[in-house]
Write a structure and sequence with these properties.
The protein is an alpha+beta fold and 86 residues long. It has two helices and two strands. A two-stranded antiparallel ribbon has the order 1-2. β1 and β2 form a beta hairpin. The protein starts with a helix and ends in a 7-residue tail after the last strand. 0% of the residues are buried.
Amino acid sequence: MFKLIRLALYGLVGYAVYQFVTDVVNSEQASAPSRGRGNRGGGGGSPGRQQITGAKRGGGAGKPEATHDSDGGSVRHRVGRGVVGS
């Protein structure tokens, strides 16, 4: 019984530490000056927080690929993260 209570307390303390650390990290990111092409603002989210898009995380341009058809033709297109189909 006491082991279960102790485990629950460890869980609560761990969760409190996790929330504290994430709040500190998020406040440092919000107060840091933006780098790159500037802060465009727009979109949802809370004021003062910049929304991270796929292009900011890891390129977003996609990787060029060639798809070969059974009749011998090929089509060049981009595949991968951040690619929006048209």
